[in-house]
Structure formats: C-alpha cells, structure tokens
Design a protein that fits this description.
heterodimer, A: 104 residues, mainly alpha, Protocatechuate 4,5-dioxygenase, Chain A, 7 helices, globular, B: 273 residues, alpha/beta, Protocatechuate 4,5-dioxygenase, Chain B, 8-stranded mixed beta sheet, two-stranded antiparallel sheet, 10 strands
Chain lengths: 104, 273
C-alpha cells in the first residue's frame, strides 16, 4: 500500500511551519529570500533541516517525509522557481508511479 | 423549496488560471479548451438562474495549518476572499443562511462538520474553477458556499463517505423551505502528482477508467477505491468529484473535455441529473 499524500510526521513540524509561513506571509517570504539562515533560526530548524531546505531538492524532501504541498512552498515559493517541463527532468522528478491494478 | 439544479467537476490547478512558464502553441490551445469548458459550465448556470454554487474542494495546507486541519468544514461567514498562490483574486458572498442550514442538517445526519465564520482566504482549489465559471456566467451575483473536504493530507475522507456526504447535502437542500437554486461543483484532478517525485507522470489509463464510470453513471462503483489506488494513480482529489456526484444524484456524465498534458490529466465534466 502506497500513501503519497501522507500524514505529516510530527518531527517535521518546524520545517512544515516554515513552508506554510513562506506561503502565507509575504514578510517571512521576503525575509527568507534576503537571509534564509536567519529565518530558519527563528523557526528553530536543526542544521540538518537547514541543509535540506537550502538543497532545494524536493525529491529528497519527499523521501525524508516532508508533506508534498509544503515541498511546493519550501522549494518553489521560497526560491521563486517553478518547475517547467524541462526543469522537471533536470531535478529528478518523473519517478515511475507505484504499482496499481485497474479492475473493470 | 430549495433544490439542486445540476453539478459539474473540473480541475483547479493554478496553471489553469495562468501559465507560469512558456509552453507550446498546442499546449496553450488545449488549456484554452479546459478554460472554455469551465466557462461553458458558467454559461449553463447563468441560463438556469442559479443563485448559489456549493464547491467541494480540498485545501492544500494553504488556508489551514497542521495546528488544526479539518477533514470537513463549511464556511458560514458572510463573504470570503479567494486567492491563487496566496494572491487575492476576488471576494465572493456566501449564502450564509443556506450554509447554516447545511451545517446543522449535516450534524443531525451524523456528519460532524466543522464550521468557519471567518477565514483569511480560500486558495486555488476553490478559486481557479470559480474564476472561469463565474466569467462564463457573466459574473452574475451568484453566492458561493465553500466546503473543505480533505483529500490531500492523510488520513482522508473515504470516497464512500464523500458520496454519502453528497447525498446528505441533497436531502437537506431538498427539505429546506428556502427558494435557492443550487449548483454543485467538485474540484481537482484528474491524475497528477504535485510536490512528489512522481510529478511529470499522468496515469491516463486510470483517468479513462474513472471517466467511463462517470459517463455511464456508475459512480457508486468508484467509491470502493481506496487512497492507496487513488494516490498511485494521482487521483487523490477524486473525493470532491464523488461528493458533487452524490449531491446531484448523477444519472450519467457528459465529458466536456479531457486532455493528457505532461503534468496533469485535465478533465471537465457535467453531471446529468
């Protein structure tokens, strides 16, 4: 059983809150663009979490359990980058979808 | 007596509102067909003198946070802002009186729905289809009841429950002494994998399976699908469609458009009553 849009693990609450705030709050978003480490300190991120955010690697974030909709904020809204068709390939998306059966 | 005069479903991707990147002429033309189908829904709504649209949509952790994330929530305030990517697009009046009837009625029917009388905004799951539909309806003074139905953060509302929710909504509206003419919309889908490593895939075979069931009016057969299958096929947002189909008591479905883009199976349907 594959659940993709999964329950957010509590251990990621600081990261999730940062992503939510970057989406919701223009002030946080602008300040993040100016000085990301200062904002990440405000949200209490660990060094490991800071590295993950700065990697801009949405695939890695997903594999570590970050909620997919927060990944949008942490990768694309935080850094102003929207993944076009060409970028998708460069960034390592397009992974083969999970097995499923269609019973007609 | 209030009544449901019809229903429809369609995508809510922000891309349907505005392309954030350069695309080919073919892509742009296909996207125009999707927008055109949504506007056609609006045109038909206008002809039917609909005064209220009830929208089943699923928040994307934009209106709500994990501090309190509702499975089901009815908006019972007077009016609300509608945004895309957090940017305000429009402000729409709610049919507060009917929303309150629905809230009390649903709890009576053992759907323990939460309510909100004040909210910062509803984002693209509500705004995008409404933007085009209301244009098609010549932006008449149609009131909108937004209904948050969680299909995006696990654990989620099961499809059987979504269908029964729609049926309850229908019963409550039909038993109301109000005179509202209500149209129901389900938003989202079809196959896509936003924010995941699977992004860039579209499970067209699964989409066609769903579309054929809808076309033949065999909606109940879809309600056995679980979130493992729905996630695997990128159809995690189907619950909003099922709730709308349940409310309409759909007999068959007109597929207004289906387009397999590189990142989304875009489909707009009209539920025949």
């Amino acid at each position: 059983m594959v659940i993709i849009f999964r329950y957010p693990p509590l251990k990621h609450i600081r990261l999730h809150k940062l992503g939510y705030s970057i989406f919701r709050d223009p002030d946080v978003r602008e300040r993040f663009k100016q000085d990301p480490y200062k904002v990440m300190d405000e949200f209490g991120l660990t060094e490991e979490e800071k590295q993950l955010v700065m990697s801009r690697d949405g695939v890695k974030m997903y594999d570590l359990g970050i909620q997919p909709y927060i990944i949008f904020a942490l990768v694309w809204q935080a850094f102003g980058d929207w993944p076009s068709r060409e970028k998708i390939k460069q960034l390592g998306y397009g992974r083969s979808i999970p097995q499923r059966t269609i019973e007609r | 007596m209030a009544r449901i005069v019809g229903g429809a479903a369609g995508p809510h991707s922000p891309v349907v509102y505005k392309l954030p990147w350069e695309e080919s002429g073919d892509y742009v033309a296909e996207m125009e067909k999707v927008r055109g189908a949504l506007k056609e829904i609006g045109r038909r709504i206008g002809e039917s003198n609909v005064d209220t649209i009830l929208v089943f949509g699923a928040d994307h952790v934009q209106s709500f946070w994990f501090g309190c994330f509702p499975q089901m929530m009815l908006f019972t305030g007077e009016e609300a802002d509608y945004s895309i990517g957090g940017n305000k697009i429009m402000r729409l009046k709610n049919n507060r009186e009917l929303a309150e009837e629905l809230l009390f009625g649903l709890v009576e029917e053992e759907f323990d729905v939460g309510f909100s009388q004040e909210i910062d905004f509803f984002d693209h799951p509500f705004t995008v289809p409404l933007y085009w539909i209301l244009q098609g309806a010549d932006n008449r003074d149609i009131k909108v009841i937004p209904f948050q139905l969680n299909t995006n953060v696990h654990p989620r509302v099961k499809l059987q429950r979504c269908y029964k929710l729609g049926q309850s909504v229908r019963r409550i509206i039909e038993n109301s002494r109000r005179n509202d003419k209500v149209f129901i919309i389900g938003t989202g889908g079809l196959s896509h994998y936003p924010g995941t490593p699977y992004y860039g895939n579209v499970d067209e075979e699964a989409d066609m399976f769903i579309v054929e069931k809808l076309r033949e009016g065999r909606v109940r057969e879809l309600t056995d699908l679980g979130y493992d299958w729905l996630d695997a096929t990128g159809n995690h947002e189907l619950g909003s469609w099922i709730a709308a189909a349940g409310a309409v008591d759909v007999k068959s479905t007109e597929v207004m458009t289906y387009w397999k883009a590189w990142n989304n199976g875009y489909c707009v349907v009209w539920f025949n009553v």
